[in-house]
Design goal:
Its EC number is 2.7.4.25. One of its GO terms (biological process) is pyrimidine nucleotide metabolic process. This protein is α/β, with parallel strands linked by helices. The protein has one domain: P-loop containing nucleotide triphosphate hydrolases (Rossmann fold, 3-Layer(aba) Sandwich), CATH 3.40.50.300. 58% of the residues lie in helices and 12% in strands. Strands 2-3-1-4-5 form a five-stranded parallel β-sheet, with helices on both faces. The longest helix is centred in the last third of the chain and has 23 residues. The protein is globular and about 45 Å long.
């Protein structure tokens, strides 16, 4: 079966503040695909429950139904095709349906600065929250899924977002997708 861009499933992962959602939104717009951000739904769920992201992460560590709900939502949308999905673990969880699995990375300093700007918090608070959350998530994904969310060896593409503007990252991903499509013809 020939893959067309309009049916493509692109999964973008990486740590908090790496640019996952920014890149995914721009990519979806450029390719006229749908976009789903697992992190957005996680933050929304925390807000609805009156919890911080860290508090919900701690609860999710004990209650796998939270991750299972978000993961099943992402998988169902991916199966429909024509979508860019971003989430910390999306490329691992969607490995059987994603046509392109991308990791976006950046140094902790850059990620903390981006998160502080996004969340309108001071940098010290962001560093503390992010380190706590990432440790919880690392343990959670290892325990529930047997994956190391810092190991990108099975990905199609790993891009350091410090080195490129968001639009340039999108161009790199588009080129990789075009090459993937060419190889399915």
């Amino acid at each position: 079966m020939v893959l067309g861009i309009e049916r493509a499933v692109i999964a973008i992962g990486g740590p908090a503040g790496s640019g996952k959602t920014t890149i995914a939104k721009l990519l979806a717009k450029k390719l006229r695909l749908r976009h789903l951000s697992v992190g957005y739904f996680f933050r929304k769920l925390a807000q609805e429950k009156g919890l911080t992201i860290e508090e919900l992460s701690e609860i999710a560590q004990q209650d796998p139904s939270i991750d299972r709900y978000l993961d099943s939502m992402a998988l169902e949308e991916a199966k429909k095709g024509g979508i860019v999905i971003d989430g910390h673990a999306a490329p691992w969880l969607l490995k059987d349906v994603a046509h392109l699995r991308v990791a976006v990375i950046a140094s902790p300093e850059v990620r903390y600065r981006r998160l502080a700007e996004r969340d309108k918090k001071n940098i010290e608070e962001i560093i503390k929250e992010t380190k706590t959350r990432e440790e919880i998530e690392r343990n959670r994904y290892r325990r529930y899924y047997g994956i190391d969310i810092e190991d990108y060896t099975d990905f199609d593409l790993v891009i350091n977002t410090e080195r490129f503007k968001p639009e340039e990252v999108v161009e790199i991903i588009v080129k990789a997708l075009e090459l993937r499509i060419k190889h399915t013809e």
